[in-house]
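Re: beginner question about structure tokens

> Can someone show what the tokenized structure looks like for a real chain? I only ever see the sequence side.

Sure, here's an example I had lying around. Input first:
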Amino acid sequence: MVHSVELFAQAKVNLGLWVGSPAANGYHPIDTIMHTVEWADSLVIRDHHRYQLTVPHYPQLATDDNLVTRAYHWLLDQGAELPPVSVTLNKRIPTGAGLGGGSSDAAAVLRWAQSLGFAGNASVAELGMDVPFFLCQGAARARGFGEQLTPLAQWPGLGLLLMNPGFEVSTKMVYQAYDIMDNQGDCAIDELERLWQRRQMPDHFCNVLEPAAWRVAPALKDFKDALTRWMSPFGCYLSGSGGTYYSIGLDPDQLEWYQDKLLNCHVPWVVATRLTGE
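And the corresponding structure tokens:
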């Protein structure tokens, strides 16, 4: 039996993101470098007479569509012998933020099932394209539909600032906008990987979804423009489909100074954190 266990589900940032045209299955192939971040949700799993999910402070998230619940029932469908449990999900990663919070929560449930002996071989990408990465964590290049992972050099301890405008950006709507916009250009992930493997900081992290995210949420462009002024000389880069931006490579004193500055500028959500390994 489980009794009680606490799990941590780390956020991620996309260090560059290319997206292709949708395939026959409707999904878009991607090419990206992802790295886990110290900032994390936590899940407390306890024995219970039936499965239930509680999300303190965010009860609207405790639905059948939550990736924690979907992961639990997906595991049962795969033949996992799981006990009935209550899950308390303590959300610290914003939703609709491009930080992979839901996928990371699902991966935490999968790791818990593995600790109980589950060894299924079905594609966990069925739950979400970021889920395979979160099972590995650290740093990796993800291609295809997220299932083709190449581990990369990790840079644990590297400081970064996460900045969110305080509203969700719909991933589905961003991809729909991307499909109708004539902005499907190149993104040099090969060059990003080459520099990252040498622990050289690239001059820029391209994200081809950014113009589509601005089209879906025009206020996000205004947010980026303000961040660019406030964070100078550091660049600000969009993670995933948005709407969280990050600045990377700051030392602890810079992190604290810029965090205070942005809070004084009334940025709704600012977190000073760092990259973390497996």
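Each token stands for a local structural state, so reading them left to right follows the chain. The beta strands are 4-19, 30-47, 52-54, 85-90, 139-144, 148-151, 159-164, 237-238, 245-250, 269-274.
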